[in-house]
Every structure is written in C-alpha cells, then in structure tokens.
Amino acid sequence: MPLPPASLPPLRPGAVIHGPGSYGVDALLDGFSAELKRRGFRVGGLVQRNHGPGDDCAERMELVDVATGRAYDITQKLGRESQSCRVDPTGVAEASQAIRTAVASGVDLLVVNKFAGLESHGDGLSDEMLTAIAEGIPVLTSVGSRYLNEWQTATGGFCDLLSPVPDALWRWWGPQRMYRDLVQGVADAEVHRVVTGDKWVLVETADGLGVAARQAPAAGDDPQRWAGRGLRDLAAMAAQSWDPLEIAVGVAALNAHYNRPDVTGVPGNGLDLFASVEGRVVVIGGFPQLARRLPRAKVIDLNPQDGEYPEAACDWLLPGAEAVAITASAFANRTLPRLLRVSAGATVAMIGPGTPMTPRLFDYGVHSLAGFVAVDREAVVRTIAGGGGSRDFHPHGRMVTLHRPPHS
Questions:
Q1: Which segments of 278-376 does DSSP mark as H helices, in order?
Q2: Which of 8, 3, 356 is nearest to 177 (CA)?
Q3: Rounded to an integer, what distance in angstroms lies between the CA atom of residue 125 and that of residue 123?
Q4: Rg of the chain (C-alpha set)
Q5: 14-173 and 175-407: identical CATH topology
Q6: Which of 36, 57, 307, 321 could form a disulfide with 41 if both were Cys (CB 3.0 to 4.6 A apart)?
Q7: Which parts pass through the membrane (predicted)?
C-alpha cells in the first residue's frame, strides 16, 4: 500500500525575545514574512510599521495585513506628555480580522506582530493567537522580556524562544521546508525526456537538464510512468514522495530548472573550499580524490571503508566542526535537514552533480553550493542511459560553485 505524501513537521510557536523597544524586531518579522510570501508560501497575519513622528511628536503605529497590505492605525492621540500606552485597542480589534481570516484559510505561517501589554492580560490579539496554535498553524510573534512569564503561561511553555536575528527565524522555520521552497520556485515547463539509468537519472526540458543519483537499484523502470507530466509536477515528488526513484526524478526535475546553462559562479572542485581550514573538517559521503584534497578530514559514509566513520558518527563529529562538506545525495535521501541541524555553527557546503544551484538554500544553513551544469546534453543522456556514473558524464558539463553572500 503506497504511503501518504510527506507532510511538513509541526512547528511550536516561535517567539522573538527582545528588550525595551521593538523597532528592529518589527522590521525582522516584516522582512521574514515578506520573503516567505515571495517564495510562494501562504503567509497571513499582522506586522507592525511605525511612522512619525505625528502631530504630538509620537510615532504613528499601524498594523499591516501581510496577505492584503491593508493598514490599520492603532495609535491613540494622547498628547506629548502622556506616559500611558499609546496602542489603541479599537484599532487592534479591527485589525484582528486579518488574523481570523488567515487562520480560517489555513496559512503556512501566521505572523502576529507582538505579544505585549494587551495580550498579557488576555486582551488584544491573544485569543486569535491561541486559536491558531490550537489548530496547529505555525505562529511567529515577538515578546518583550518583561512579558516573557505571561507568554510562557499563555502557551503552557509550548514554544520556542528565538534570538532577534534572521538566522534564528530560519532555523525555527526548519530545513525540512527547503524542499517545498524549491518546488515553489520551479516554473512549469514541458518535459522532453526522463532517463533512468542504473546509477543516475535525468530530466530535460527545452531550457535545461538536471541530474540526480539513484537512491535504489534499478528494477524494471517504466519510462512511460512519467509521460505527459510537467516539470513542476515531477519536481513536487522531491518534496512529497517516499519512493526512492520518484524522489530522484523529482530532484533531477528541480535541477533541470535551477542548473540551467545561464548559471554562473566560481569554477572548480567544491572540496577545495575547505583546503585551508584549520579546525575539524567533516565530510559526509565519498568523493573522488578526497584523501588528496582534504587529507585531515573525518569522513562519514553509509558504507564506510577503512579509516571512515559510520553514519551514527554524525551526532559525535558534526557538533563543533568548523566546516562540513555534504554530498548532494543527502538532499535526495532526505537526511540533509538532520545534518544541517547537527552542523549548526559550521560552514556547510553541499557538493555533487545533484546539487540544486539556487540561493534559496542559503537561508536553511548551506553556505556554498557546488553543482553540475550540462553542456553537451546528448552526451550526458547517452552516458546516464548507458549506466555511467558521475565521473563519466562530468566531462560533458561544468562544475559551478555559488557562495552565500556575506551577512545574508
């Protein structure tokens, strides 16, 4: 009996903790929700934007509906000398409809600008937030340190406390979501060919050719099973299927979109990125010429050779590593999310012909991508169809490396 499609793991409510003032946090939540929306995720809720000063020298505050862009003024006009809370409960109540609408539509992420004074007393947006949490919708908000106890009480401690930096939000969002992220970036196109060789598979469109390593031995492949399916439909298997061959074809479809001939970057072997690293270097998977390029590296492999570590060593060697090189097969076999979590703090490179060459991966904890772009497509097709491996089709393309921009 076939397994149901892979679903995203649930998220505990995320609370960005901050000290007095929340201006930087407002911008952080605003930017994060806008980026997820740009990537195709369904994001709803409210972010806060401040403008000013107003007539009484106080900033004008507004809540903005993430989905529609509608703004709600929540500023009380209390005068220059007032020390009272300037948030207008009436404006907040009006804006709360945006949250109820988002919850009813089952958004991928609900953003609520803050859990603060009103919410700490059970007012403001507290009911809407707790309803979303109860329905399993991922909720992201901000909490001033003075209201932390009230937030913990409201959620029963079922939450993740986040630092006010972008990387913390992306770690909370989780690397499992990278698969859906990449699929949403694929422009649909007619698929010209799907080839399943003994070692590799490929998907070709008019604009590009992508490859991926097989995760299971060839056994009676039926090429007609892919007939008539579009590129985005095939790519979705990388995020949804549990069948090893379907996942491989899905990754190849992703690469047919992202590893197009117009991709530019630094040429060369991805392992050379860590040649000058003085700290611990860990390599996941076997690579040609590994011993020569990184003689001090700790190598972990599913089928370890003499001097290599078994897969269980990941939890011992990756924490505290300075650099980690991961084979692209980890993306295809879905072990990459776990490896990225265990490698937090290390500089991570994904290397291999099956690497999707897209900056979308950088926010999930990958710093460099070294992948393959086909040049002589017919030669690559012949090689893979004939059962050849990566060494055989490498001469018919070029290896390209992309780096995460500094401070991104």
A1: 290-293, 314-317, 329-332, 336-342
A2: 8
A3: 6
A4: 24
A5: yes
A6: 36
A7: none
Assigned CATH for 14-173: 3.40.50.300
Which of 254, 270, 325 has its CA nearest to residue 296? 325
8 Å CB contact between 360 and 279: no
CA proximity to 67, closest of 97, 28, 37? 37
For residue 293, the model assigns a pLDDT of 87
Q: Give the single-character DSSP code of 58.
A: S
pTM reported for the whole predicted model: 0.91
> How many CB atoms lie under 10 A from the CB of residue 115?
25
Secondary structure E strands in 171-256: 191-196, 200-205, 209-213
Q: Which two tokens stand for residue 187?
A: 């422009």
HEC-encoded secondary structure of 262-281: CCCCEECCHHHHHCCCCCCE
* Cα–Cα distance for residue pair 334/320, rounded to 1 Å: 22
Q: Give the pLDDT band of residue 31 (cuts 50, 70, 90).
A: very high
- 66, 46 Cβ separation under 8 angstroms: yes
The domain segmentation of the chain, as residue ranges, is: 14-173, 175-407
Cα dihedral: 331, 336, 340, 342 (round 10): -160
Structure tokens at 347: 């500089």
- Name which of 381, 351, 330 is nearest 201 in CA terms: 381
CA distance 255 to 261: 11
Count other C-beta atoms under 10 Å from residue 384's C-beta. 25
CA-wise closest residue to 398 among 209, 251, 204, 250: 209
Interval 353-405: pLDDT, tens:
999 999 999 999 999 999 999 999 999 999 999 999 999 999 999 999 999 98
| Rounded Cα distance, 370 and 356, in Å | 9
